[in-house]
Predict the structure of Holliday junction resolvase RecU.
Amino acid sequence: MNYPNGRRSSSRHAAPQGKTKPEFSNRGMTLEEDINLTNEYYLQAGMAVIHKKPTPVQIVQVDYPKRSAAVIKEAYFKQASTTDYNGVYRGRYIDFEAKETKNKTSFPLSNVHQHQVDHMKAVEKHGGISFFIIKFTPRDEVYLLPSSTLFAFWDDQQNGGRKSIPYHSIDKEGFRIPFRYQARIDYAGVLDKLYF
Amino acid sequence: MNYPNGRRSSSRHAAPQGKTKPEFSNRGMTLEEDINLTNEYYLQAGMAVIHKKPTPVQIVQVDYPKRSAAVIKEAYFKQASTTDYNGVYRGRYIDFEAKETKNKTSFPLSNVHQHQVDHMKAVEKHGGISFFIIKFTPRDEVYLLPSSTLFAFWDDQQNGGRKSIPYHSIDKEGFRIPFRYQARIDYAGVLDKLYF
């Protein structure tokens, strides 16, 4: 396993029954909530400007009642054409997608879409940094996986390869993201070691 | 001439009278449509990856009819916390807001919101490039205004200064964006001169 910050993964898992310990305090929150809180912390601390993009919606009908706000009465969810998060960190363009899986032994590639891969390949081509944040919920473990690693599995799948990335590959080629009080999914620390 | 999306620019424009001139052919299209087409061109041509963020919507009620897509039955427009467009160009983080005004002699600062200014100041602090694209509709003229120029007027307004930026200041301190067939609002060319 790679530890860009030199920390042992065991620090998060010292005590199975110890829910008073900070390393367990993120249970019950979704990965998205944790990342949003992290981004808010980064913003407040003047570390980075990274936001989640709004959910794309196709608006069909809007009512404009007198003296009150416009009400959308009919709309549909659209598929996003890019990724969930982007922004700027230490002068670099950052772009990532966050995915949770209930699977314990592998990350199913069905969680990823072709247009996201295309988008991330374009981002990398233009000098941006793109990656996945993958949470194995049953393990309560979060990894940063550089998009290039995922591309290899993706392209392999297109050629008849396996439809998922084994946990051990993510553990080996990805970077475990530590849980912290303020930066709950502290991916910036991993980026520091990897790209700066 | 090659059109990366295979589309002839003339196909969009019947061009009745005088509209055969390229500098007039964008009449009738909104600034947003023109910028979206420009970004699409940049993407297809492998020049940049810049997207408009979806309109943020607060979803209140969703129906899930059997055998068909989820329908949003009640939702409200939310104020965006950032700017309209961002992405990566030549390795740099790009962030901008596009505004049209029907005013001929000045750009009213009421078009801009404090949170956008705060966001852009943070972007600049982290090494990103932020700017406004301002269209004077009656003049059919489009300018790139570096956000630092707008900040000066913004901060001045806060201290009792004027509530708009005079056209002549934008003409002097901003950069006219030429209209082109393919890149209809070709701001990348201006960025090349300014930042690279």
